[in-house]
Amino acid sequence: MKSTQAPLPFPGRQSDSHKGDFGRVVLIGGSRGMAGSISLSSMAALHTGSGLVTAVVPDRCLETVAGFHPGIMTLPLPATPAGEFAQTTGGVPDMIESVVASNATVAKADAIGCGPGMGTGAGSVRIVRWLLEQTDRCRVFDADAINIIAQHRFLDRPPLPRRQASVVLTPHPGELARLTGVSPSDRPGQIEAAETLVRRHAFTIVLKGGPTEVLGPVDPSEEAGTCQRHTNTTGNPGMATAGSGDVLTGMMTSLLGQGLGPWDAARLAVYVHGLAGDLAAKAHSQPAMTCVELLGRIGDAIATTED
Ligand SMILES: NC(=O)C1=CN([C@@H]2O[C@H](COP(=O)(O)OP(=O)(O)OC[C@H]3O[C@@H](n4cnc5c(N)ncnc54)[C@H](O)[C@@H]3O)[C@@H](O)[C@H]2O)[C@@H](O)CC1
Ligand SMILES: Nc1ncnc2c1ncn2[C@@H]1O[C@H](COP(=O)(O)OP(=O)(O)O)[C@@H](O)[C@H]1O
Ligand SMILES: [Mg+2]
């Protein structure tokens, strides 16, 4: 295992602190058949230190998601027969995004992560479009949320006001290819395409892989788009296993919810996530480690990076 240094220390805790000090986060996603993904994100957010974690899921997945960890709260939304988010609720308010917007837990969330396992159906599209417009919120878009943004060309619209755009996208190379048209086999081209997105929208982009690259604006309020790049130093091919990225989504959302800015949250999340992967591989081997062992090593990884 390489010996490397964290880009910044993990935030410490005061002796009189309480769970409200560590962020309320919401994770939106899951569907019947992919309930594990949003559960992994939610458990990762808890293990990264979030005070309160709510998974917003299609109602057909509620028991499954809630059953993974007693610390996860769940908010069920109407589902299609296939078990994805429905477009309408048949009630008042009627459209699914109105239900999300009017929910008190969602309204109070310090950070919202969206996408793992949610599918790309009409209900999910409405939720992603709504979330992209919430410019006063910290948001993480991953997996199907990125696929939806790509399919519906949501980034072709005029950029959001820079000052408010606290958005992190966490594509793997296949998702970035859908977003930009640049092939996963062209790593330099993908990094350049991600830089272009950063300069235009002032988003932070985490281009996953071995190694993961973090790209973000130097000054998000500046009109002329700037971009800085950080190459992560942790992680290993044992992490090429289902659910590794879902864990990262929860960690990223957790750190944003704890008050870190997007550049710091992204660099620290990928560092601790990769280190947890390195510790899991050391204990279990690269082939045998899974997302469960990765999740189980977040604590050991944090312990080496604490303030
Ligand atoms: N337990 C669960 O419920 C899980 C659900 N998942 C969900 O499944 C859905 C589909 O996501 P997937 O990522 O599996 O499928 P995708 O079709 O998005 O990605 C797989 C494809 O992307 C490309 N790709 C990915 N990483 C690459 C790399 N490093 N280099 C080059 N090409 C690369 C490859 O072409 C690969 O076939 C998402 O909603 C996701 O959240 C997955 O996260 C796995 C676990
Ligand atoms: N060869 C590798 N070296 C280092 N990290 C890797 C490697 N392969 C995958 N990973 C990491 O594992 C995660 C995979 O994410 P993703 O493809 O979204 O998985 P999933 O959608 O199955 O959860 C990313 O954080 C990525 O950086
Ligand atoms: Mg993924």
TrEMBL record:
- Species this chain originates from: Roseiconus nitratireducens
Which gene is transcribed and translated to give this protein?
Answer: nnrD
Which residues does the annotated region (Disordered) include? 222-242
Q: What class of enzyme is it?
A: lyase
Q: What is annotated about its quaternary structure and interactions?
A: Homotetramer.
The record's similarity note reads: Belongs to the NnrD/CARKD family.
Q: What is its EC number?
A: 4.2.1.136
Q: What is this protein called?
A: ADP-dependent (S)-NAD(P)H-hydrate dehydratase
Identify the domain of life.
Answer: Bacteria
Required cofactor names: Mg(2+)
Residues bound to AMP are K208, G209, G210, P211, T212, G245
Q: Where is the YjeF C-terminal domain?
A: 2-305
Task: Give me the reactions it catalyses.
Answer: (6S)-NADHX + ADP = AMP + phosphate + NADH + H(+); (6S)-NADPHX + ADP = AMP + phosphate + NADPH + H(+)
Q: Which GO terms describe its molecular function?
A: ADP-dependent NAD(P)H-hydrate dehydratase activity; ATP binding; NAD(P)HX epimerase activity
